[in-house]
Amino acid sequence: YRLNEVDVTDTTCGYCAVGCRFDVYSKDGEVLGTRPNPEKAPINGISTCVKGKFSYGYVDSDDRLTQPLVKEDGEFREASWDEALSRVKEGLDGIQQEYGSDAISLVASSKATNEDNYVMQRFAREVLGTNNIDNCNRLCHAATVEGLSDTFGFGAASTGLTALEDTDCYVLVGSNTTEAHPVFGTRIKQNVRDGADLLVFDPRKTQIAEYADQFTRVEPGYDTTWINGMIRYILAEDLHDEEFIAEHVDGLEKIRESVEEFTPEFVEEKAGIPPEELKSAAETIATADSCMFGWTLGLVEHSHGTDNIYAIANLALITGHMGGPKSGVSPFRGQNNVQGGGGDMGPLPNNFPGYQPVTDEENREKFAEQWGMEMDEMPAEEGYRLTEMFLAADDDDLKGMFIQGENPQISEPNIGHATEVLEDLDFLAVQDIFLTETAEYADVVLPATSTVESNGTYTSSSRHVQLVKRAIEPKGNAKPDWEITQALAARFGYDWGFDSPSDIMDEIADLTPIYGGISHERLETEGGIPWPCQSEDDDGTPYLYADGFHAVEDSEKAQMHVADAIEPGETPDEEFPLVMTSGRVLYQYHTGTMTLREEGLDAYSAESFVEIHPQTAAEYGVADGETVTLTSRHGATAVRAETTDRPSPGEVFVPMHYLEGGANNLTKEEPLDGPSRAPEYKVTDVQVTLE
Ligand code: SF4
């Protein structure tokens, strides 16, 4: 086609939280491709990755949901919207009458827009009267949010794009950046080529490790140990930033005491890091003019994830690398809108939008007044975290779920356990764009729109709120999530009267100080705005804490917390001698709902695999490409072996995207991290046997 024959719509990528923007080219309701428009793409400029560029075939997939489905005698049949919504109301009503509102839980979607998520949490609180709402943030960066908000005030990345492109030193921990956040990876590699230092800490030699000045292998589950050891060394050698600490930090003396036992020898014994490597990395960090600490789920998905975050936050504080344009902390968020939809919008069991606690009476009053509720109708107790929902169902305390755009059948720890829970629920409604593995267990399935059929906003990993625009009309009878939720609320007698996502954003801005100055009109004319953006004349905040740590409750200083080096939840033994870590691959996204329907991507990664070090493979008699059985204390799965030196001998790696052969066939639902209730995905003991 010629350019003047096609429609062009500028929008935001629906795949990951880097937040790339680009123009979508479409013709007669079909997406033809995308191309970045650098003028409208502050984060990615002229770059996108393979997913953002080519991966829209799924939208027209033959098995797209285009009509509501209801289950009858164990089989799905198509239904009208009227019938399907009535069935959902009947199902939720029945549980409410018999067991009370808290026997229902909702799972919101970090793929959906901010506006979709805002109305979902409003539905939970106002219509159902429960705080049992959560999202997949619980399975990834929940510990990051806990640790960072306790220390600095905000549970989000402090840095913006300047640090990403121009810091003097990157410290990447448990982050497979080039595959999981490809455009961030590109920016980092460019700056490293121009002279920035790159230190990578990981159990697995990821692609980004190949560009590192120093790559340090860490035993899975021992990050607190090496970070505490590094803090001890920096303090002992007087490499810390005394002036910054005196002005901005509380708690140094208790940290000094708590790290005393983390000698270089102890760190080597536990975390496997030779003393010289620990010391040279410590010196590079402490003497750098600026430093960005980036991490992903390798640091977080542990039964002591919050301690890991306390530790890395303490390291940033003692070296004075916080609050500058090129220095600070940057958790790389996973799904496209997990920052906004998974957190900022309050689909959380403990917070209203903008991280305003539900247990605070003034907050409850504010939201009750806006929504026209009596105070005694507004739920006051915190609800179940996502992981706790699946445990509460075991105990028969949870009877029904409404899941929007998530696929816990694959993403929850221990697929076997998730299956039992989904099968046993009295009522399950799922809202999605495909009949996912989770939706197969539903009583009612509601067809939603994909990202290129939706309007609204996403918030990127660097806190930029950006517009999402409809490029093609919804397929069949699919509807945007917010419209479905509003229609369901109407069934319960609630008239919200939103005409558009822009209307919803106006209500969000009224109630949520960090989004106080955001509107669709401003985003259209100004482009992405990084929160906090408190008022209409506030340009937003490219990096946090430039003028101190005022967001910390009752203090003007950052609060250091002692990071306890808690042992992983399981230890290898004779029966399960290898440690499995898990993660993502470039060509797949989350549970593969979209990407496993892309022919181009499946050519590279249609099926799961296990990476085994050649030495381990030889020990077990495994040949490259052979199918093996992996067994853990929690499950088993058959998977193809790939021999590579990316993992250490004694460790294996399995991606999380797949039902067959995926990592979560082997992971466990407990223990959970204390503060965040996030699971320990990153340490699972396994044995390998030949098929
Ligand atoms: Fe989309 Fe992430 Fe790729 Fe950018 S890096 S194009 S946001 S998937």
Automatic annotation (TrEMBL):
Organism encoding this protein: Halococcus salifodinae DSM 8989
UniProt record, GO biological process: formate metabolic process; respiratory electron transport chain
GO MF assignments: 4 iron, 4 sulfur cluster binding; formate dehydrogenase (NAD+) activity; metal ion binding; molybdopterin cofactor binding; NADH dehydrogenase activity
Entry keyword Cytoplasm: no
Top-level lineage group: Archaea
Gene3D superfamilies per record: 2.40.40.20, 3.40.50.740, ADC-like domains (2.20.25.90), Dimethylsulfoxide Reductase, domain 2 (3.40.228.10)
Pfam family, any one: Molybdopterin
Family listed: Belongs to the prokaryotic molybdopterin-containing oxidoreductase family.
CDD domains: MopB_CT_Fdh-Nap-like, MopB_Formate-Dh-H
Keywords: 4Fe-4S, Iron, Iron-sulfur, Metal-binding, Oxidoreductase
Keyword Transmembrane helix part of the UniProt annotation: no
Domain 4Fe-4S Mo/W bis-MGD-type: 6-63
Protein name, per record: Formate dehydrogenase subunit alpha
Cellular component aspect of the GO annotation: membrane
SMART domains per record: Molybdop_Fe4S4 (SM00926)
